[in-house]
Amino acid sequence: MTEHSYQPADHYDRVTRAWGLLLGAELHYGVFEGADEPLDEATHRLTERMAAAARFEPDLRVLDVGCGTGAQARYLATEQGVRVTGITTSSVGVDIARERTAEAGLDDRVGFEVRDGTDNEFPDASFDRVWILESSHLMPHRDRLVSEAARVLAPGGRVVWCDIVRHREIPFLELRDRREEFATLRAAFGDARMEPLASYVSWFEDAGLTVEVAEDLTEATLPTFEAWRTNAEQHRDQVIDLIGESSLEEFVRSCDILESLWREGTFGYGMAAASKPT
Ligand SMILES: C[S@@+](CC[C@H](N)C(=O)[O-])C[C@H]1O[C@@H](n2cnc3c(N)ncnc32)[C@H](O)[C@@H]1O
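^ Class I SAM-dependent methyltransferase, sequence as received from the core. Prediction below:
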């Protein structure tokens, strides 16, 4: 796959259904309190941590950038009483999200659209919260994601973000030596680029936002890989039907690679929240 032909939407259109089996209902890492905890509890804990940082109030307007299949949007509408617009570049994601939201009877409070988080085309100041859960690593122009989030926030609004982060520079020679590992990650997870937590803090500040929370979650997210490998074993036949055997093998190998990158201090996980001055 060349850089020019790659579109994140292609990748998510292809993998979204299989991801539901491998990653669970929420398509993101877990924040574990114990290594044996069920994955769904740990992924939901991450959502709850972000919700606490967002300081929701009933009826606020929330933009969910990179909404997956809408699990968090439905949770936020049900548990926090907010109204959510979820956007993703994957039309398959939007189809599944709309179907599940209709089944849950939440259409009046939750909607989904195919839009790009780095150029969302919503009017200025049209949301009270912007929620960016593990989608930023897929966007080449991180500064534009943040400036768009700041633009659509109303004064006094707040953006909450979390994602995979990079803890150190990876020298060119190391990148070259480990190119097969990084190619496997790209094949399994899409064309991602990790940036340090400090860079996100700077982008928020550059966009005129005041950073309120910046937290490292590397250790708490580490058991995620073992949980994903267990899901891969348990749902092997169904996943092969959806994405093929070689993609499943790539996924399992990627869990091993990411786990090593976490343990050696190269990659990890971060969360931040920032507010727009009134
Ligand atoms: C790892 S999933 C996270 C989904 C969801 N937030 C969750 O935690 O369950 C990444 C999501 O980002 C979306 N995405 C990737 N690039 C995007 C972009 N430029 N704009 C909006 N969404 C994007 C993908 O389609 C996918 O829905």
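Confidence is low (pLDDT under 50) at residues 1-6.
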